[in-house]
Specification:
3 domains; about 725 residues; eight-stranded mixed sheet; alpha+beta; Aldehyde Oxidoreductase, domain 4; five-stranded mixed sheet; 26 strands
Length: about 725
């Protein structure tokens, strides 16, 4: 790699000072003179027909400005992909987080009081919380007029799976389950809506795709897009949970209707109840091997869409495409479907469909290694992709395949030793207190950018001030990339500084404002370094190329389109054949655990993460991403589960009932290793990282628990009770 001055350096984050000094303003910090407050009337039933809505008592309270219902919404529909949700429920509610009305009042306390006076009369409808039951032909329909509750299905057919399974000398099958997971971001939803000096409906909110929020708001209000504006200040975390629009339409509606500023802030309980979750999956795996190599994989994936489609039509094909891991398996049969229930809508969450399958395929790889008497490292190495390998969809793997090197480095860092063609596992005797130690590893991969033929675009505009010699003096970058904590603004400043040969402190990146900053797409899919980085890099190049003698300022705008560089194609409906993704990042993680065989309590002692990032744009920020990803992955592995009661209402309502890891739950030793196998299409060879570093965490921990105790845990989270029950069943000779 060539020497660089900004890229590849641990440059301080551009938002660091504002955040640590408290200068950073988040949506809840914004206020305006004369501002009113809004509260939502939420559905009182998980599935019911609305028979009546009485707002008279609320309107009678002095200081109540308005009570908005579905009749106040010009086009009462919205959605990220399908517009199947109502802004305010008009006829049927399908989950308890559905808004029915919005109360606007002079104070927040008054708005809460008035909200409780709104009376809604319901007729309960049949409740479906289990996607397997909801798939049955006789199941009542959650959306009337559809053929079934199955939102969509996909498949991959490659080779002859039946023949390969018939010839296999070893077949292993198992069923795995992963639960609903809450995004648990630090800042609950908050927004301020107002009419700006040009009369535009303006919303200050935390959104991951501001320009798409504007699309949905303008449609719902029946306004031209240029009459709607979204400003995105500092964001207190997202993890995919802010890609779907939430309160932005409600605040925009309230400001538009009352012709004045309106603020809405959700409580933590409202946040947990009323935004979507990570998809639960049931995953059925039946794989066969012959002569020590896996030759066939049959997989069935069943995902819960919840009440509405959200991004399920994109998430589940992503899961389909990675269902057999980064492994060379010649015969593949995968069926995947996503099913409507009366659960919360499921949506984008860190991993976007690639977080669930590794829990299955990495445990399956360990099971084969044990059954064949091989160590898990060398067994994986003989199956893992290399340059030129072919994916399950039949397309070649994009260039820059560093997956084997991530495995080698992670295995060695945790204590495995290569001896000839085999790898020897570290010897871990029990601890003096009787806890058993185990070590495990897992490999996973994820696409970077949007897939299946989607034009993944980002537009950047760069303005450069020149000195008397025509050399860059300072620059400004305008790009609508929402900074949700992952450091994208810092990386884009580094790329601009590199291209313009400027210090990073002479590059200013403007806050996201859809009236000024061009559309960069969503802060999701680990895409901004690759997609927006390419846009900024080329905009800088064009700005410099456009200089003329004596000119003191140049400007250039460029739209990068992934299809121009690395075209993808959609899944063939019959075979699943396609070129699915732009590029991939690969991660291998290894875990050492100590497990109490009496209580089932797990302590993670050490973690190693080796990630192929293409080019490490900012090594220090990568360490931060790895730490955050491991924390989220450990929560997924050991404790996190969003639960509903049998009546469809939320059981885990706040952080006293929904457990997330604290610093006491994290390993005392964490090793992060950057593997750099460049993608020639990435800016300076970079790929992406944000989501990848949580994908192998859970299966690595599960494999370590198996190594310690000799029992398989096929369902997350692997809490003490679940482990204790697995041990009790093993003692009785009962399989789980």
């Amino acid at each position: 790699m060539r020497e660089t001055r900004s890229v590849g350096r641990s440059v301080r984050r551009v938002d660091a000072v504002a955040k640590v000094t408290g200068q950073a303003r988040y949506p809840a910090d914004y206020a305006m003179p004369g501002m009113r407050h809004a509260k939502v009337v939420w559905a009182g039933e998980p599935h019911a027909r609305i028979l009546g809505l009485d707002v008279s008592a609320a309107l009678a309270l002095p200081g109540v400005v308005a009570v908005l219902t579905s009749r106040d919404v010009p086009h009462n529909e919205f959605g990220l992909i399908d517009s199947d949700q109502q802004v305010l429920a008009a006829d049927v509610v399908r989950w308890t987080g559905e808004p029915v009305a919005v109360v606007v009042a002079e104070t927040e306390e008054l708005a809460e009081w008035a909200r409780d006076l709104v009376k809604v009369t319901y007729e309960p409808l049949p409740l479906l919380l289990d996607p397997i039951r909801a798939m049955a032909p006789e199941a009542p329909l959650i959306h009337a007029g559809r053929a079934s509750n199955v939102l969509a299905s996909w498949k991959i057919r490659r080779g002859d799976v039946d023949a390969a399974l018939a010839e296999a000398d070893l077949i292993i099958e198992a069923e795995y389950h992963v639960p609903f997971v809450e995004h648990a971001y630090l800042q609950p939803e908050a927004a301020l809506g107002y009419l700006d000096e040009e009369g535009r409906v303006t919303v200050v909110a935390a959104g991951q795709w501001p320009h798409d929020d504007v699309r949905q708001i303008s449609h719902a209000l029946g306004l031209p897009r240029e009459q709607v504006r979204e400003i995105v200040p500092y964001i207190g975390g997202a993890f995919g949970g802010r890609e779907d629009i939430s309160l932005q339409i409600l605040v925009a509606l309230a400001a538009w209707k009352t012709r004045g500023p309106v603020k809405m802030v959700w409580t933590r309980e409202e946040s947990m109840r009323c935004h979507g979750k990570r998809h639960p999956f049931t995953m059925r795996y039946r794989w066969g091997a012959r002569d020590g190599r896996i030759t066939a994989a049959r997989v069935e994936l069943i995902a819960d869409a919840g009440a509405y489609s959200s991004s399920s039509r994109a998430v589940v094909p992503g899961a389909l495409s990675v269902a057999v891991g980064p492994y060379n398996i010649p015969n593949v049969w995968v069926d995947a479907c996503v099913v409507h229930t009366n659960n919360p809508p499921t949506m984008a969450m860190r991993g976007f469909g690639t977080a669930q399958p590794p829990v299955a395929y990495e445990q399956h790889m360990d099971r084969f290694a044990r059954a064949l008497g091989e160590d898990p490292v060398s067994f994986r190495l003989k199956h893992l992709w290399e340059e030129g390998s072919v994916q399950a969809t039949g397309a070649p793997v994009p260039p820059g395949v560093g997956v084997k090197e991530t495995l080698r480095q992670a295995a060695q860092a945790i204590g495995w030793r290569p001896v000839g063609e085999r790898w020897v596992k570290p010897d871990l005797p029990p601890l003096p207190d009787g806890r058993r130690r185990g070590v495990g590893l897992a490999t996973a991969f994820k696409n970077v950018g949007y897939s299946f033929g989607f034009h993944d675009r980002s537009t950047a505009r760069v303005t450069v001030d020149l000195d008397h010699r025509g050399e860059p003096e300072r620059a400004e970058v305008f790009i609508g990339a929402a900074e949700v904590g992952m450091g994208v603004h810092t990386v884009l400043v580094q790329i601009a500084a590199e291209g313009l040969e400027l210090p990073t402190d002479r590059v200013k990146l403007h806050v996201v404002d859809t009236s000024e900053t061009p559309n960069a797409g969503s802060s999701s899919a680990s895409r901004h370094t690759f997609i927006s980085g390419n846009a900024v890099m080329e905009a800088c190049r064009r700005a410099l190329a456009g200089r003329t003698p004596g000119q003191r300022r140049v400007e250039a705008e460029y739209t990068f389109d992934s299809q121009d560089v690395r075209p993808t194609t959609d899944l063939d409906r019959e075979t699943g054949g396609c070129n699915p993704h732009i590029t991939y990042g690969y991660v291998t993680q290894a875990a050492e655990v100590a497990v109490d065989p009496v209580t089932g309590l797990v302590e993670v002692l050490r973690m190693v993460s080796a990630q192929d990032v293409g080019r490490a744009m900012n090594p220090l920020m990568i360490e931060g991403q790895v730490g955050g990803g491991l924390s989220m992955g450990l929560g997924y592995a050991l404790m996190e589960e969003f639960k509903l009661r049998d009546d469809g209402r939320v059981r885990t309502r706040n952080f006293s009932e929904y457990l997330i890891p604290t610093t006491l739950d994290l390993p005392s030793e964490l090793t992060s290793i950057n593997v750099e196998v460049p993608d020639p299409a990435g800016p300076y060879g970079a790929k992406g990282l944000g989501e990848h570093v949580m994908l192998p965490t859970a299966p690595a921990v599960l494999n370590a628990i198996r190594d310690a105790l000799g029992v398989d845990i096929n369902q997350l989270p692997a809490g003490p009770e679940r482990i204790w029950r697995a041990l009790a069943a093993a003692r009785k000779g009962v399989s789980q």
